């Protein structure tokens, strides 16, 4: 038993063979991760690439969109304007995000920051 303890190190004395096999498996995973990272497979999934688009709405534009969206949704909820009032979700969402896809297509930018 002493030969086995010295061959596998101090971990074998208290943990047993299952622990050593688990450690070997963990080392394989870490080595695989290093290879993938080195070959830039993992780098293609960085959060920077999935970030929100740049804001293209100014403060006044955003406030007007949020207010308009809330008014339309309130009117739709009370039944005053019918189902068309639910279109208020669009200006509300774009106002909260600060980004309008139509502005991007048309090249419009009301936000002063570049």
- How many runs of DSSP E, i.e. beta strands? 0
- Give the averaged pLDDT, no decimals: 77
Helix- and strand-based class? mainly alpha
Distance between the termini: 70 Å
Helical content (DSSP H or I, runs of 4+): 55-70%
Integer count of domains: 2
Low-pLDDT regions: none
Count every helix, treating DSSP H or I runs of 4 or more residues as helices.
6
Beta-strand percentage?
under 5%
Task: Write a structural description.
- Helix 4 packs antiparallel against helix 5 (89-97).
- The protein folds into 2 domains: 2-47, no CATH class; 59-106.
- By secondary structure, it is mostly helical.
- 61% of the residues lie in helices and 0% in strands.
- The termini are far apart.
- The longest helix has 22 residues, at 17-38.
How are the secondary structure elements laid out?
Elements lengths: L1 H7 L2 H5 L1 H22 L20 H20 L10 H9 L3 H6 L8
In summary, what is this structure?
It comes from Piscinibacter sakaiensis. Residues 55-113 form the Inner membrane protein YgaP-like transmembrane domain. Helices cover 61% and strands 0% of the residues.
């Amino acid at each position: 038993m002493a030969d086995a303890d010295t061959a596998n190190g101090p971990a074998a004395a208290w943990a047993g063979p299952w622990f050593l096999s688990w450690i070997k498996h963990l080392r394989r995973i870490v080595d695989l991760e290093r290879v993938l990272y080195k070959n830039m497979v993992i780098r293609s999934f960085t959060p920077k690439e999935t970030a929100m688009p740049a804001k293209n709405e100014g403060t006044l534009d955003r406030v007007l969109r949020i207010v308009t969206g809330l008014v339309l949704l309130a009117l739709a909820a009370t039944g005053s304007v019918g189902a068309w009032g639910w279109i208020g979700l669009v200006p509300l969402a774009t106002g909260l995000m600060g980004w309008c896809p139509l502005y991007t297509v048309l090249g419009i930018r009301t936000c002063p920051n570049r």
